[in-house]
Design goal:
Layout (H helix, E strand, L loop, with lengths): L4 E4 L18 E6 L7 E6 L6 E7 L16 E4 L14 E5 L3 E8 L6 E3 L4 E14 L2 E5 L3 E5 L5 E16 L27 E2 L10 E9 L2 E9 L4 E6 L4 E4 L18 E5 L2 E6 L2 E2 L19 E8 L14 E5 L11 H10 L4 E2 L2 E7 L4 E2 L1 H5 L13
Parallel strand pairs: 8-14
Antiparallel strand pairs: 1-16, 2-3, 3-16, 4-15, 5-22, 6-7, 6-25, 7-12, 9-10, 9-11, 9-12, 11-17, 13-17, 14-15, 18-19, 19-24, 20-23, 21-22, 21-24
Organism: Nonomuraea maheshkhaliensis
Protein name: Homogentisate 1,2-dioxygenase
Family: Belongs to the homogentisate dioxygenase family.
Length: 390
């Protein structure tokens, strides 16, 4: 994270004695990235965060192997046709992925068990519903349109309020704001489409009681369920630059120009080998002779995974794309507006239409995306041929 926060009780200096009311010492836990050479936070526990009483390997219930996108083809997946069994962790249905990132969809009304992803950061986008994110850092109340970014190693759980639909972006490293939005010291610059005031983080400690508490842990070696002697939600205070936060897509301020701008103007986060972009309602391109719609384009180094979450998709009319759809346009394929869409939008502008209402989350990856069985199960098999329709 680009700025410092302090929550709850902490001593005046780091790594000095900090005593409980009964005279005992609070236990420090330093959470640090990149071998403690990057961002970190220091948490103060009532109990030892190292005290476990049991460990057992966990064998996943289903097959999660991904298959190459062959024959090479643009794809359309209808997530509204998917239903998962489980919670927002165990019920994730992998749609696509590679060595850098895994993209999954989940819908659930069940609380998850305590979970720690020690492979990389997660960015969970809430498409519908409301959910309470509980963690060792505290609580974040999240709802429709929120990205919730969870640092590697954070013990947490998801508690839905009714049914919640999410897209889970699981990285093999760290997810951060793009460097070009930040000063050399980490402050958001004036040209950035969002800033520190738009980010929501835990505001106070959150504690829970319990003994012999299981936590599901994901590592590169697989899944393990560790049983902690005391509930890990026992932190009385923390400070640092590393913590979970939420950012709502409605707080993204679109960057516009007189003619159509390419996707980097929509970039929201960056991860190892991928970027996350937010397409939000914005003014249409306003040059007198502008073509206010995407041109045919071929991102030669990226696969483009686009999740359509709201609004009207004028460029995709006639393709079958709608709210809940995901399109995958792989490198090696040129894509763009559907036949007739350019003319229709130019006519709409002539009638006085000045804005677009589309809302979408896009993940561009710099290695090819393989496909999961859940994606193929909800695929619109005729999508690839929609540009050839007269």
């Amino acid at each position: 994270m680009p700025y410092y926060r302090v929550v709850g009780e902490v001593p005046r200096k780091r790594h000095v004695q900090f005593r409980r009311p009964d005279g005992g010492l609070y236990a420090e836990e330093l959470m640090g990235e990149e071998g403690f050479s990057s961002d970190s936070s220091l948490l103060y526990h009532r109990h030892l965060p190292t005290a476990i009483v049991k460990a057992e390997a966990v064998i996943p219930a289903g097959e999660t192997r991904l298959e190459p996108n062959l024959p090479l083809s643009p794809r359309h997946f209808r997530t509204q046709e998917l239903s998962s069994a489980g919670d927002l962790v165990s019920g994730r249905m992998p749609l696509a992925g590679n060595a850098d990132v895994r993209l999954s969809y989940a819908t659930s009304d069940q609380p998850s068990e305590l979970y720690r992803n020690s492979m990389g950061d997660e960015c969970v986008y809430v498409q519908r519903g409301r959910v309470r994110f509980e963690s060792t850092y505290g609580v974040i109340e999240a709802g429709e349109g929120d990205y919730v970014v969870v640092p590697t190693g954070t013990i947490h759980r998801w508690v839905p309020d009714g049914t919640v639909n999410v897209l889970a972006i699981e990285a093999a490293g760290h997810i951060r704001p793009p460097k070009r939005y930040l000063s050399q010291h980490g402050q958001f610059l004036e040209h950035a489409p969002y800033c520190e005031r738009d980010l929501r983080a835990p505001a106070e400690p959150f504690t829970a009681e319990g003994e012999e508490v299981p936590v599901l842990v994901r590592t590169r070696g697989g899944l393990t369920r560790l049983v902690y002697r005391h509930h890990p939600f026992d932190v009385v205070g923390w400070d640092g630059y590393l913590y979970p936060f939420a950012f709502n897509i409605d707080d993204f301020e679109p960057i516009v120009k007189r003619t159509h701008a390419p996707p980097p103007v929509h970039q929201t986060f960056e991860g190892p080998g991928f970027v996350v972009c937010s397409f939000c309602p914005r003014p249409l391109d306003y040059h007198p002779e502008a073509v206010p719609i995407p041109y045919n384009h071929h991102n030669v180094d990226s696969d483009e995974f686009m999740f359509y979450v709201g609004g009207d998709y004028s460029a995709r009319q006639g393709s079958g794309i709608g709210v809940g759809s995901i399109s995958l346009h792989p490198a090696g394929f040129t894509h763009g507006p559907q036949p007739g869409a350019v003319e229709a939008v130019i006519e709409a502008v002539a009638r006085g239409v000045t804005t677009t209402s589309e809302v979408a989350v896009m993940v561009d990856t710099f290695r090819p995306l393989d496909l999961g069985s859940s994606a193929l199960a909800c695929e619109d098999a005729g999508y690839a041929w929609t540009w050839a329709r007269s």
